Structures are given as structure tokens and as C-alpha cells.
Amino acid sequence: KKYGVNELRKMFLDFMESKGHLVLKSFPLVPQGDKSILLINAGMTPLKPYFTGAEKPPRTRVSTCQKCIRTGDIENVGKTARHGTFFEMLGNFSFGDYFKREAIHWSWEFLTEVVGLDPNRLYPSVYLEDDEAFDIWNKEIGIPAERIFKFGKEDNFWEHGAGPCGPCSEIYYDRGEKYGCGKPGCTVGCDCDRYMEVWNNVFTQFENDGNGNYTTLKQKNIDTGMGLERLAVVVQDVDSIFDVDTICSLRNLVSKISGKEYGVHHEDDVSIRLITDHIRSATFMISDGIMPTNEGRGYVLRRLIRRAARHGRLLGIEGNFLATLSAEVISGSKDGYPELEEKKEFIFNVLTNEENQFGKTIDQGLRILADMEEAMNAAGEKTLSGENAFKLYDTYGFPLDLTKEILEEKGYEIDEEGFKAAMDEQREKARSSREVTNYMGADATVYDQIDTSVTTEFVGYDHLSFESPV
Ligand code: ATP
Ligand code: MG
Ligand code: MG
Ligand code: MG
Predict the structure, then answer these.
(1) For residues 23 and 10, what is the distance between their CA atoms, to the nearest angstrom?
(2) Containing H/E element for 174?
(3) Which 8-state DSSP code applies to residue 27?
(4) pLDDT by residue (tens digit) across 340-371?
(5) CATH number reported for the structural domain that contains residue 200 in this entry
(6) Do 263 and 196 share a structural domain?
(7) Is residue 259 part of a domain?
(8) Ligand at shortest distance from the CA of 196
(9) Which residue range forms the structural domain that includes residue 221?
(10) Which residues form the Alanyl-transfer RNA synthetases family profile domain (predicted)?
(11) pLDDT tens for each residue of 177-224
């Protein structure tokens, strides 16, 4: 039977509830009291205080379906079958309660018995020194040794600086030869879409003191994460996360609005998938109170909206279209996230305002950029000056990466240092003019926090965030 996305979410949470877990609602995308990340990127991140023992969990077994944003995956979106900037992560967590044995057995039970995946297509991986996990897979579950992959620290040991850390065991699904890259040696761990990672089980059993010294934790934890959309891909046996039931109807709407049939031209398909993904992120971000601005999270949102708007132009869409798409996101996801329905008018307004604002300048900006390209061509240059990139940013509202993306498609680069310098110069000017108009005790440092330097941040963002393995 082919379960839908909304059914699968419920099946997972019901299953974990039957194993004694307390099911919690998804936490908001905006981290609460955690300055180390801009946006929640995994099920475990809002639960960190329970892992470290800083706070007492409501129960030692918790399960969630967590909305996640990973802008670090943005380059993959539309190109791989399995990456979105937005996705939902199903997870079960043990705070000093059960450990490896239960976690592995339950993940197997869920995948093979509850949703009925073919066990012969599933491949676990373990950290190469984790004999305990290997033996559970091999002797208890009965997976032949040659089907269990042993990987090193980069792949199968989860840690982030100091603190709780440990080996992990991932479960891959072989989607068949037609999804393979065809290169010799393509197998579990290959970066192509054939052996798709579905679930990651992290065994947080050590504490790293920050200098690479590991001690065994008194409290052993379990932290797992499975992409709901990826689960749906394998259960529904479809090509990509853009083909699962709820997302497919959104994708079809993009096709309908643009008049571009899906599956005909590769470039159109990439744009269709990208818009489909970005509108999901934007809808959920706005629903969690993020507004398009020029800094931090707000800039992440602005960039996603503007990138979607530009790809809409590429597909030939005229006028605003994002609110219409957002309505489809909401009707597909309100089952799991009823707050979307309550906030929909607000979400549509924010999207339309941002589209209007960018719409005023995008066509002109694109023309100016085309002129700049021509000038570069004539001069035999391959790099757009920082000044020009800044002009596009400042006057036409083009986020740096948008300009970069457009130019990269044609083999050009940007002088990013020059862009930063132009930005700094403008900031300096703004500062000195503020000093003059700084009346009524307004504190200049407040303005400094709304710093334009963060606008280059889509690149820098990855330094701020950590992509936890789960
Ligand atoms: P990959 O190697 O495929 O990029 P990952 O190792 O980065 O995945 P984890 O950090 O282990 O992923 O996250 C746990 C699970 O979340 C993954 O096994 C996958 O099912 C899902 N997941 C991770 N990133 C994405 C994404 N960008 N889009 C959709 N699902 C994702
Ligand atoms: Mg990844
Ligand atoms: Mg991985
Ligand atoms: Mg992983």
C-alpha cells in the first residue's frame, strides 16, 4: 500500500508512542535560547538541553516530527532527488533511557513491518569501531555481514565541538539501478541518488572535552532522524521528493501557473523543483514569525523568496504567484501544522509584499545585469566588479548569491571581496550620517546590530549553523 505523507507522519508518531514515547509537537523553526544556529536544522536541536542534562525532559522517551531548514543544502535543491531546504524530520529520542538495541530494532520494525519496505533493499552502516551496533544488525536483526557498511569518523561519528557525541548508524535504501550514477564502485555511501540515506541513528555515548579527549557518558542518549519526504519517496516508489503526494500537487501547480510541463526540459524542471522547495520553506518560516529583512534569518527568507521569484520569471510567469502556491503548501500540510491555516492571510500578505517590492526592480535589474555582461564580454573579462554587484544589491535588491547564480550559469564570477568593500563603505557612510541624526538618546549600537554585513551571510551562514548529522 502506498501511504501518503500525512499518513506516514502519523504512523511514525503512533509507532513511537506505542513504544512509550511522549509525542511532542514540532518546535518552531526559530531556535529558542540557542544562539549557535539561525534556524532549526534537525529534530535534536531544540532538545539539546535534555541531551546535555541542563534541563529535565518531560519524559525520557520523546518523539517528534520536526520542521527543518537547511540552507546548506541549497545548492543541491532541484538537482538531487533527495534534498530540500525545507523538510520534516521524524525522530525518536532517549535521554538516558533505552540505547542501541531498542533504537535499531525499532527502526527495523518500523521500516519493514509497519510501512512494509523490502528488507533486501535496506542497508545499514555503522561506525567502523562500533562492534556493538554491528552485532545487533548482524546477529539480532540477521543482516549478513557483507551488507553492513563500516564507515569512518566523517560519515558515522556525530559530534559538534565539545559536548555529547557518539557513533551513528544510518539506514540506506537501494532505489535501483536507474537512479545510479553508473560509476564503478557505486554503492552505499555514493553521493548519487541510488542508495538514499533514509534514517540516521545517533548513539550519544561519549563526552568530548573540546580537546579530543573522550569520556563515557553516564547518561547514554539516542537521537534519530528520518526525512519524512525521503521515507515517502521509498514507500511510494517515486523519483524524488518532488514526486511524493503532497509535494507533487504543489509541483503540478507550478507547472500549471507557468504553462511548463514537468519532465520535458531539464532546466525548466530544475526551476520548477526549486520554486516548489523554496515556497515550502518560505511559508513555514513566515508562519513561525520570520519576516523578509536584510539580516540573519530574515535575509535567509528574503533570499529564498527572491530566488523563487526569479525562477518564476525564467519559467515565463508574469505577475505575483507565490501566495497562490503558498495556499497549496498550506492545504497539503495543515494536517500536521494547523497553525498554517490560521495564519494564512498573514503569510500571503508577507509573500505578496516581498514579491511586489522585488517585482519593482527585478526586470530593470536583470536588464542592467545583461548590460554588465555585455560590457564584460566586450572587455574580455570574466569577473563582475564588486561595485557592480553592490549596485545590483543596493539599488535593485539582488541578493549577492542571486547575482552569482545568474552569472555562474554563464561562466562568470563575482569579485566578492570588492562587494564586501563596497558594502563596508556604505555602512561607514550610514554610520557617520547616523551620528549626526542620533537624537533622543537612540543608541547607535542598536543600528550596528542590523548590520548590512550579514547580508552577505548566505555563504557565511553555514559557519554559524551546524549541520548536525541528525
Ligand atoms: P545526506 O547525506 O543525504 O545529505 P545527511 O546525512 O546530511 O543526509 P542527517 O543530518 O543525517 O542527513 O539527517 C537525518 C535525515 O534527515 C537524513 O537521513 C535524511 O533522511 C533527512 N535529510 C537530511 N537532509 C535533508 C534534506 N536536505 N532534505 C530532505 N531530507 C533530508
Ligand atoms: Mg546532508
Ligand atoms: Mg549523510
Ligand atoms: Mg546522515
Answers:
(1) 11
(2) strand 163-174
(3) P
(4) 999 999 999 999 999 999 998 998 999 999 99
(5) 3.30.930.10
(6) no
(7) yes
(8) 1
(9) 5-236
(10) 3-470
(11) 999 999 999 999 999 999 999 999 999 988 888 888 898 888 899 999
